[in-house]
Design a protein that fits this description.
This protein is an alpha/beta fold. The protein has helices spanning 5-27, 134-188, 190-209, 211-230, 233-255, 259-266, 268-290, 292-311, and strands at residues 37-43, 54-57, 60-72, 77-84, 96-100, 109-113, 126-129. The protein has a seven-stranded mixed barrel.
Length: 312
């Protein structure tokens, strides 16, 4: 079968037109072979959203913006048409579409926050429009408290520096006066300072000349410390502790009334007997002093009897 030239030209024209239409929509980000669902959302501000702008969920592209048009000329609201081509996504009716900025340089996108009603959107539904601050506004919210804190710090610093500003000249004057006093003191005692330096120089010279003797003295001190370390200090301490233990036992026995000292310390009867004996002895001495003839007479008679026995 022979195809005519006119039929070939017609087929070529149809294919070229189809490719042109497909390429036009492809360049706009639309795939005519994936129609998907068409959804709408109304924003008070377009946020520089244009056709072929990506529509994402958690950063994943699920479709594109297919058209934007002014909905209410008096209020300036914008109707945005979205074509959702992702078939595996369950898009809830309570989902919310917001204009989001993924970066400082990147263009805005339509970010959909999924709802939880359990009902899936249908073709032609309108989603709720949310408000996104964008990364610039987010940064401003972070920077603004820092700016306020910096202002507070600067105010506090200013409140501290203002009193110092008034007292600073006085402080500088006092410091200058102190420096002047020190300078005058040094000038007035220049000779004394020179003598002190000279004496220090002599002292250092003497130490240098007697370095060997100083080494010998240090050596002797080391030997003395070694001798002290070599003493049987442990035995001495043990002997001292033993003596102290004996004294403690002696005091304990006295306190318990053992022995003569214990009886004297604890037993009143022994003490009274000693007092009675001392009183009797005192009375006897008093009697001898007052009547010595009584005791002397008996003594002489006793002596004479002893003489007579010896003569016989």
């Amino acid at each position: 079968m022979k195809i005519s030239r006119e039929l070939k030209l017609a087929l070529f024209t149809i294919v070229t037109l189809a490719v042109t239409i497909w390429g036009f929509y492809f360049l706009k980000g639309q795939d005519i072979f994936k129609p998907g669902k068409v959804l709408f959302v109304v924003f008070p501000h377009a946020g520089f959203i244009e056709p072929s702008t990506p529509v994402v969920v958690n950063g994943y592209k699920i479709g594109i913006v297919s058209d934007t048009r002014l909905m209410d000329p008096t209020q300036g609201t914008v109707l945005i048409e979205m074509r959702i081509t992702e078939k595996n996504l369950f898009l809830d009716k309570e989902s919310e579409a917001i204009i989001s900025s993924p970066g400082l340089i990147a263009a805005n996108v339509i970010d959909i926050k999924l709802g939880k009603s359990g009902q899936e959107v249908e073709d032609g539904d309108t989603l709720k429009a949310g408000l996104s601050l964008g990364i610039e506004a987010t940064l401003m919210n972070i920077v603004e408290p820092l700016q306020n804190n910096m202002n507070s710090v600067l105010k506090n610093l200013d409140s501290v520096l203002v009193p110092m500003k008034t007292s600073l000249p006085t402080t500088v004057d006092n410091l200058n006066q102190l420096i002047g006093d020190v300078d005058r003191l040094v000038r007035n005692n220049d000779q004394k300072v020179g003598n002190i330096v000279q004496n220090l120089d002599k002292l250092l010279g003497t130490l240098a000349r007697n370095e060997s003797q100083l080494d010998s003295m240090i050596g002797n001190l080391n030997q003395f410390s070694d001798s002290l370390a070599a003493l049987e200090l442990a035995q001495t301490v043990a002997t001292t502790q033993q003596a102290m233990e004996q004294v403690r036992n002696l005091l304990q026995s006295i306190n318990e009334g053992e022995g003569t000292l214990g009886q004297l310390a604890k037993n009143d009867a022994l003490h009274r007997r000693i007092d009675s004996t001392a009183l009797s002895l005192q009375l006897l001495m008093t009697e001898i002093n007052e009547h010595p003839e009584r005791f002397l007479h008996f003594s002489l008679i006793h002596v004479n009897k002893n003489k007579d026995k010896s003569i016989k």
